[in-house]
Write a structure and sequence with these properties.
The complex is a heterotrimer. Chain A is an all-alpha fold. In chain A, 82% of the residues lie in helices and 0% in strands. The N and C termini of chain A lie far apart (52 Å). Chain B is of the alpha/beta class. Chain B has two domains: 1-63 and 140-228, Rossmann fold (3-Layer(aba) Sandwich); 74-139, no CATH class. Chain B has helices at 25-31, 57-61, 79-91, 95-108, 124-136, 154-169, 181-187, 205-210, 215-227; strands spanning 14-18, 44-45, 48-49, 64-67, 142-146, 173-177, 190-195, 198-203. Helices cover 83% and strands 0% of the residues of chain C. Chain C is mainly alpha-helical. The termini of chain C are far apart. In chain C, helix 2 (11-51) packs parallel to helix 10 and helix 8 packs antiparallel against helix 10 (192-222). The chains are: A mainly alpha, B alpha/beta, C mainly alpha. Chains in contact: A-B, A-C. At the A-C interface, helix 1, helix 3, helix 4, helix 5 and helix 7 of A face helix 1, helix 3, helix 4, helix 8 and helix 9 of C.
């Protein structure tokens, strides 16, 4: 396998020039989708964990069922069900919405468990001290428990967020115009895998910094403990 | 746990509760601010019955201060933050007013200069004094102490007892669960001995320590004082 | 309500497509049974190489791990699937899929085992060696058991992730469960097959989720 053949296939400048703009557009969609998923997933996860801390049995049961179900289901299955099954009962949604909703619910499930573990790790004495100064349950949660719980949640949370944002690639299966969608169709069209190389590079550009950042965060918080 | 308690504390009194572990002394103390709830009976503080469901527990708790064995300071806030959190969120004071009151409370326990220090920068005795300031800042009618010095190194115990003595002299009503017998002898108005969930005996310090009615009390006092 | 049953839980269609779905489950299991053991083994190998503490080697290993952690598995799969023919390599579909997934999971298992090995205090090895155990024996009987126990929740959690990963193979036409379910749905114009597939995944994987939760809570309690 000579080098020139390799370059012609995977690093073809001519093919690249035709498709690089699509890839850039895809990067924008991937980023936008990723941020939307993280915002919704984290907010929902935190809200569910806080709700669970009020120890209202019916609510806690439903939350656990939700968290278990969406940690067990493969994200791609959720996307497929939302996009292909729901229209049959009149609930049609765009590919983007289906992907965003599916990934957000999965992230919310994992985030809830992580936040819950964090809340449980705060010593009971903190709640007692706070309540005995007259703070309500919600105030105690907001000003005493959550700030301490968050520290424990940072490493597993960053890992999970990275995994989920990589899941945005799954949107390509239902034709969301993110990176790999353009890369894949470009490669098919051109009969040359260079667009795939561009797509791979695009993901590296987006995610390598995030992975390195999370490595740094992990070491920082591991030491503090 | 508690098998029938009938205890009344008058204003300005310092009541000391002693007894072997498992006797229910902590449980009794924690009933006083409803951290634990009695299955029967009532807990009346300053005219309000805490066991009634319609009572606004958060409001009542502002008037009852509690100091814990393990301090339970908020590690993510500095000393001033610890003291002013409830002032700002529960009483609703503005930031400046709360900080002024906070500094006052810290001054009372002798730690005004440590206002910006975080709990992990303070010694055990200092942390406990900040915890006392946190309770004082809300101007409580009564202070509850749950083994306040048991988790402290011996050299640091004195600083906390000094603050407690000053509080006593200023007329604060206090209920203290502790093993500090010397302190009880010097400062308590009444000593209560508990065992097996009931109050075995109650009286002035001289009586309990020197001429108790029950043998159990005498044994216990002898055992504890020989350790110190 | 009537309509929901007809569209999502259609018994007639379920009966017809059930063998199809079952074959999909078989393939999912087969794929998992290959990837998990090989992934664990290679992850362990990576961690042990790292444990040798050779500076240049560790830099290579960390680069490998970070590279494949940053890469979305679907992209890796499509890249290998689309690109391998151009390298003159003609792997069967199972092989292509397995290769892509292995590159991904070995790096995750590698990270987990690395953290596990580091969590065992160095004095354990010293103590073992001073009783005459060789380096290999120390690793096998003293270090590894403790390391594995310390990261057991993460190991099981990652294994769960790997099994969920198999659904990606449907994108390149590998006949695992999701792929067969989607085909069945297209053929019958009815959503029951994919709903059934979702339920099958739930039934198969929920016990693992519970196991992970229990292991995690146990390790928190120990702390």
């Amino acid at each position: 396998m000579e080098l020139s053949r390799l370059v012609f296939s995977f690093f073809n400048a001519e093919v690249a020039s035709r498709y690089w703009l699509d890839i850039v557009h895809g990067m924008w969609v991937t980023t936008y989708l990723g941020i939307a998923v993280i915002a919704a997933g984290l907010a929902a996860g935190l809200a569910l964990a806080m709700l669970r801390s009020f120890h209202f049995r019916p609510a806690s049961f439903l939350i656990v069922v939700f968290a278990d179900a969406f940690r067990a289901l493969p994200p791609l299955v959720v996307i497929i069900v939302l996009f292909f099954a729901f229209p049959y009962v009149g609930l049609a949604m765009s590919a983007f919405t289906a992907t965003w909703l599916a990934l957000s619910m999965v992230l919310a499930a994992f985030a809830e468990e992580i936040f819950w573990a964090g809340i449980l790790s705060v010593p009971k004495g903190q709640t007692e001290a706070s309540r005995s100064t007259g703070m309500s349950r919600l105030q105690t949660l907001a000003f005493v428990i959550i700030p301490q719980a968050v520290r424990l949640t940072i490493p597993p949370l960053t890992n999970r967020m990275i995994a989920i944002t990589k899941g945005t690639a799954l949107g390509s299966v239902v034709a969301v115009h993110e990176i790999i969608y353009h890369a894949s169709s470009g490669a098919s069209e051109a009969g040359n895998p260079t667009p795939l190389t561009l797509g791979a590079l695009a993901y590296l550009v987006l995610f390598l910094p995030v992975v390195l950042f999370s490595r740094w965060i992990e070491t920082r918080f591991a030491w503090k403990r | 746990m508690l098998k029938g308690i009938d205890l009344a504390v008058t204003q300005g009194e310092l009541v000391f509760i002693i007894g072997p572990s498992g006797s229910g002394k902590s449980t009794l103390l924690r009933c006083c601010n409803r951290l634990e709830a009695p299955t029967r009976g009532s807990v009346i503080v300053d005219g309000t019955d805490l066991t009634r469901p319609e009572v606004d527990l958060n409001r009542v708790r502002q008037k009852i201060g509690m100091v814990f064995q393990s301090f339970n300071l908020y590690p993510h806030l500095n000393a001033l933050g610890n003291v002013t959190l409830a002032l700002r969120k529960v009483v609703g004071k503005g930031r400046d007013e709360a900080e002024a009151l906070g500094i006052q409370a810290l001054t009372r326990v002798g730690l005004a200069e440590k206002a910006k220090a975080y709990p992990n920068e303070l010694s055990g005795g200092q942390q406990q004094r900040v915890a006392i300031a946190r309770a004082l800042a809300l101007e409580p009618r009564i202070l509850l102490f749950d083994e306040p010095t048991s988790a402290l190194d011996p050299e640091l115990v004195g600083s906390v007892l000094k603050v407690m003595r000053e509080l006593r002299e200023s007329g604060m009503t206090m209920v203290v669960v502790s093993h500090e017998m010397e302190f009880a002898r010097a400062a308590a108005d009444r000593v209560v001995f508990m065992d097996g969930g009931v109050i075995l005996e109650s009286g002035v310090p001289e009586k309990i320590f020197s001429r108790p009615e029950h043998a159990r009390v005498g044994e216990f006092v002898a055992r504890i004082t020989s350790h110190h | 309500m009537e309509q929901i049953l007809q569209v999502f839980f259609n018994v007639a269609i379920l009966e017809r497509t059930w063998p199809f779905l079952l074959r999909g489950v078989e393939m999912t299991v087969a794929l998992s049974l290959v990837i998990v053991p090989v992934g664990v083994a290679s992850g362990l190998a990576i961690a042990m190489l790292y444990h040798l503490h050779l500076k240049w080697l560790n830099r290579v290993l960390i680069a490998y791990v970070d590279f494949f952690r940053a890469f979305p598995p679907l992209v890796l799969l499509l890249f290998i699937y689309g690109g391998l023919p151009f390298l003159g390599l003609d792997l069967p579909l199972f092989g292509t899929v397995a290769l892509a997934f292995l590159l991904n999971t070995s790096s995750y298992y590698g990270e987990i085992f690395r953290a596990g090995l580091e969590s065992v205090p160095a004095v354990q090895a010293e103590a073992a060696r001073s009783t005459g155990l060789s380096r290999g024996q120390t690793m096998l009987w003293v270090i590894l058991p403790q390391a594995t126990r310390n990261v057991l929740p993460d190991l099981v959690s990652n294994t769960l992730e790997v099994i969920k990963l198999t659904t990606l193979a449907s994108v390149v036409g590998f006949t695992e469960l999701l792929n067969n379910a989607r085909n069945a749905q297209a053929l019958t114009y009815n959503a029951t097959p994919i709903v059934a597939a979702a339920l099958i995944y739930l039934v198969l994987l929920w016990p693992l989720v519970r196991l992970v939760s229990r292991l995690e809570h146990k390790s928190i309690a120990v702390r």
